[in-house]
Structure to design on (83 residues):
């Protein structure tokens, strides 16, 4: 098992935690992890870019997750903003 930056476990033999394209709803883009209810997964980078709307705080990104936090929440970790 390899650890991603930030300590998120990456298990190449499992699809439980995986990299994905998403739109993140957040007022600011200075965080590195987001709860599941702020993340909308998409099939491709193009789909995430098409669903994004900066005026509504919906930003396209590449994320890694979900990973369970110590509080029991499912979190997604930012890999890269797409815009």
């Amino acid at each position: 098992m390899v650890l991603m930056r930030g300590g998120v476990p990456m298990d190449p033999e499992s699809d439980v935690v995986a990299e994905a394209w998403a739109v993140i709803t957040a007022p600011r883009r200075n965080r590195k992890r987001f709860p599941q209810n702020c993340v909308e997964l998409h099939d491709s980078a193009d789909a995430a870019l098409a669903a994004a709307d900066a005026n509504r705080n919906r930003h396209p990104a590449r994320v890694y997750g979900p990973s369970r936090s110590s509080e029991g929440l499912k979190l997604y970790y930012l890999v890269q903003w797409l815009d």
Notes: Strands lie at 2-3, 9-10, 18-25, 33-35, 39-42, 58-68, 74-81. The chain has a mean pLDDT of 86. Residues 2-81 form one domain.
